[in-house]
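Researcher: Structure for this, please.
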Amino acid sequence: MLATISWIALGIGLLSSLIIIVDVIRHPQMMAIMNVVWPINGWFLGPFAVWSYYKWGRLKAKDVDREDNRGMGAQVFMSTSHCSSGCTLGDAVGVPIVFFTSLTVAGSTLLAHYTVEFIAAYLFGILFQLFAIYPMNQEAGILGNLKDAIKADTLSLIAFEIGMFGWMAIVHFVLFQTPPKPDQATYWFMMQIAMILGFLTSYPANWWLVKKGIKEAM
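Model: Predicted structure, C-alpha cell format:
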C-alpha cells in the first residue's frame, strides 16, 4: 500500500512540475532562475506549487502586465521557494552519490547522506541565490555578489536542512525497521515529505532575513 501511495505522490509531483514547465516555456519569468525554481517546487509541493505559481509566479512573467499586489507573506513564500529549490536540487544530486559509492561517515549511511547532501544543497543554494542577485547588481562583480549570496542564503539553508534531516532521522530510526533505499519509490516519497518540512522550517528564517533587509523579498 505504501509503495502504491508513493508512486501516486511522485506522479502528482512530476505532473505538477510538467504543468509549470509548459507554462514557463510559454511565459518565461523576468528572473531567469525562477524558470528552474518553479518546476522544482512542483516536484515536492505538487498542486500547491501549481496554485501558487499561477497566483504569484505568473505576476513575474515577462509578458504579463499586471499590478504586483503580493503581500509580505507571498513575497517570503517566493524567497523560501527559491531557497528550497536549490536545496532540493542539491539533496537530489547528493542521494545517488552516496547510494552508488556506498559511502559512510563514522560507519553510518545516514551521516553520509547528511554530509554529502548538505554540501551539495549549500552549493546549489548559493548558486541559485547568485543567479538571482547578480543581474540586479552587476557592478559589485562576482565576488561581491557571492558574499551577498552567502549572507542571504546560509541561515535559510540551514533551517531547511534542519527540517529535512529531522524527518530523515525519523524515517531511519522510527518509521521503518529497514529504511527504504533510493532505488525504491517509497524513499523518494519520504524525500518529498522531507522537502515540505524543510520548506516549513525555512519559512520563518526567510521572513526574518527579508525583514532585516539581509535578503531581498522576491
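Researcher: Any notable elements?
Model: Residues 73-211 form one domain. The CA atoms of residues 130 and 146 lie 6 Å apart.
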